[in-house]
Amino acid sequence: MLDLYHHRREGWLFSPSTPSYKNVLPDQGAGGHCWRREPETVALCLVALRALPEAACPLPPPGQLQPPAPRELALGYVVERKRMADLCSSIIDGRFREQKFRLHQCGLQHPIYLVEDSGTIQHLSLPESTLQQAVINTQVVDGFFVKRTRDVRESAAYLTVMTRHLDRLFGVSSRERSWGEPRESGTETLPPPISVIPPQAQTVREVFARQLMQVSGVSGDKAAAILERYSTPASLLAAYAACLSPQDKEMLLSNTKCGKLQRNLGPTLSKTLAQLYCTPGPLP
Amino acid sequence: MDCSCAIESQAVPCSISWKRQVGPSQVDDDSWVEEPNVLVLLRLEDFVSMEVQGTADCSEETLRSFAARVMEKTAGRTLALVVVGLEKYFRLEFLSHKLQSRKKLQSVVLSGSQAGGQGKPRKRKGKEAPISELSRVEVEEALVDLQLHAGVQVRVLESWKELGDLASSFTKAVAEAPFKREREKKGFSFYLESEWCRGAKVDRSGKGLAQVWKRQIQQFNRVSLEMAGAVVSKYPSPLLLAQAYRKGSSEQERQNMLADIPVRRGDGVTATTRRIGSELSRRIYLQMTSPNPDLSLDANG
DNA sequence: GAATGTGTGTCTATAAT
DNA sequence: GTTTAT
DNA sequence: ATAATAGACACACATT
Predict the structure, then answer these.
(1) A-chain residues within 8 Å CB-CB of B151?
(2) Which residue among A84, A263, B57, B250 has the highest number of C-beta atoms inside a 10 angstrom radius?
C-alpha cells in the first residue's frame, strides 16, 4: 500500500519519482499550481504543488542511488476530502485517528480537512452530535483548518478558488525570492522546500515498548512505566537474573507505578512478564 | 462539574473564550490561563457589509482587517468565526429580486433574526446574473482569502440553536484538548500506527506466550511472518536466545548468530537467499543485548 | 478520543466505641 | 504444613 | 501462625 505515510517512510514523499496521479483540477500550466492526488487515501487527499524553476533545481549527482532532488515544491497546503459517510466509517473502525495523525505527521504546514455532505449528517450509523463533535475536535484539538461543504460541487468550487488564490500568493513574481523571506505586501512566506524526509529509525527503546505491548493488558502507559525503570531488554533480563528466588522474579514489576499518578502494575502482569522472560525452556 | 460560565465584557464583542485553572495548589490564587481559542460571533449584517467592502475596494473595514483587529487583541490565539443566517439571507435576496420588493424583505430578515438590523443596499459592478449565485461565489472568495491570510475558519450556521450546540461542542473540545495533547506527546506514536494488533491474550498459566514471543520479533521493521516464525522456532523463548548470545565468543559470531536460519519463502523462485540475513540478525542482537535504549537499529555502523 | 457499554484487574476503607 | 473462619 | 472482602474505581478491550 502506497500512501502519504509510506511515501514518507520510504523517503520518497514529493520526489519526482513519485508516480503522477490524475489531477483533480487541470494544471495551470508552467508555474501554475495544481492539486496532486496522493494515492491510496480512499478519501481524496490533495497536495498543492508547484513546479520548481530549473535554476533552483540542481541535478542529482550522477551514479547515486539517492532519491533525486525534488523538481516540484510542495506549498504546504494539503487537503483531505472526507465525505460524511466515510468519516463515519473511519471513526468506527479507528482509521480516523490514524489519518489525522499521518496528516499532521507528513510535515506540511497547512493541513485542511474538507468535510463534504455537511447536510447529510443524518441517518448514518452514528449520531449527529457525535459527528459534529468529531469535526470540531479536528478543528480545535488537532488544529486543522476545517472547511465544510454541502456537496461535491461546493468542494470543487472551493478548490478552484483556493487554487486561484494560491497562484496569486505564490506566483511567478516571487519565484526568485529566497525561501522563508516575507513577501512585499503581506506576512506570507514561501514554504521551505520539502524534499526527502528520511524514514525514522527504530530505536531499542521503541522496539522494546512495542514488544512489551504484545501481551494483553500491557498498554502504552504500562510499557512506558516499565521502560522508565528498565529501558532495555538487557537491563530487564539482568534484573531478572539478579533475583534470588523465582518469587522475586514474579514480583519484580508488580510495584511498577503506571500512568496517571503511580498506579501499581500489579502482580498479575508482573507474573506473566516474568514467565515470558524467565522461562528456561520453550514457551507454552 | 467544576466549571462555570460567566457573561462579562470581552475585549472582542460577541466572543467566547475559555480560562482554565492551572497552577498546582494555591487556592486563592487566581492563576487562570486563557485557552488558545476564541470563538467570535459575527453579526450577519456586519459580515455582509465587510464582504461587500472587500469586493469593492473601499477603505472601510473588510473581513481581513476585522480578523486582524481581533487577532491583535487576542494575541495569537486561534480564531474561529461564526455567522448565522447566511443561507436565509441568500434565499431572501434572491426572492427579493424576483419580487422587486427587496428592501422590505431584507429588513424583515435582518430585524427578525438579528438585533437592530438595518438594510444594506448593495451596489454591484456589471452583471445581472442570479445575484444569489454571485454572492455565494464572492463569499467563498472572501472565506478563502481569510483562510490564506489569517488562518481564520468561518462556520456558517442557520439557526441560533446550532450556535448553542456549537458553543457546547467547542467548549468540550477546548476542555479536552490539553489532555489529549499531552497523551500525544508522551504516548508512543505506534498506538495509532497503520496496522496495530493489540496484545495477544495469555491465560494464567502462560499459554499464549509463544505467540507473544513471535509477535515480539515482528516488532522489528521489515520482518515477515515467516521470518519471525523461523527465529522463534530456533529459539522458543527470549531467555534461550539471550543465553545463546551470552555463550557466543566474538561480536561477529553473536551478530550473525541468526543470519543463517532458514526461512520458508514463497513458492516461486526468489533471487534473495532464503535466510534471515545478517542485517536482521544484527538488529535482533542489538535489541536483546544493547544497554543503550537510544541506539538506532537501522543505523549502519 | 465518538460514544457508550462491558468485563479484567487494582485500590481503599472497612467495626465498634 | 495444610485447613478454618472473619 | 497466617490473614480478608466488598466495593469503588481504572483500565484494557469489545459494540450500536
Answers:
(1) 110, 145
(2) A84
Residue A240 belongs to a domain with what CATH number?
1.10.150.670
Determine, yes or no, domain membership for A221. yes
For residue A219, say whether its CB is under 7 Å from any atom of strand E.
Answer: yes
Q: Which pLDDT score, from 0 to 100, does residue A116 have? A: 94
Domain total in chain A = 3
Q: Compute the distance between CA of residue A219 and CA of residue A223 in angstroms, rounded to an integer.
A: 6
Count other Cβ atoms within 10 Å, centred on residue A152: 12
> Is B222 at the interface with chain A, CB within 8 A?
no
Please give the pLDDT value at position A189: 52
Among all strands, which nt has the closest C1' to A260 (CA)?
Answer: E10
Residues of B with CB below 8 A from A97's CB? 192
What is the structure's pLDDT at A71? 47
Question: Which CATH number characterizes residue A130's domain?
Answer: 3.40.50.10130
- Please tell me the pTM assigned to this model: 0.85
CA atoms of B84 and B163, how far apart (whole Å):
8
Q: How many C-beta atoms surround the C-beta of residue B22 within 10 A?
A: 10
d(CA B84, CA B158): 5
B188 touches chain A (CB under 8 A): yes
Checking if the pLDDT of A30 tops 50, the result is no
User: Which of A176, A158, A197, A186 lies closest to A74 in space, CA to CA?
Assistant: A197
> Does the ipTM exceed 0.90?
no
- How would you write B185-249 as a 3-class SS string? HHCCHHHCCCCCCCCECCCCCCCCHHHHHHHHHCCCCCCCHHHHHHHHHHCCCHHHHHHHHHHCC
Rounded to whole angstroms, the distance from the CA of residue B95 to the C1' of nucleotide E15 is 49
Is B240 in Cβ contact with A281 (below 8 Å)?
Answer: yes
Question: Is there a single domain that holds both residue A85 and residue A133?
Answer: yes
The domains found in chain B, sorted by start residue, are: 1-186 (3.40.50.10130), 194-299 (1.10.150.670)
Q: In Å, how far are A44, B17, B119, B135 from B140, measured between CA atoms?
A: 21, 27, 22, 8
Q: Is a pLDDT exceeding 50 seen at residue A62? A: no
A161/B147 Cα distance (integer angstroms) = 11
pLDDT number for residue A164:
85
More reliable by pLDDT, A37 or A172: A37
- A119 is in which domain, residue-wise? 76-170
In a domain, A21, yes or no: yes
| Strand bridging mode B78-84 / B153-157 | parallel
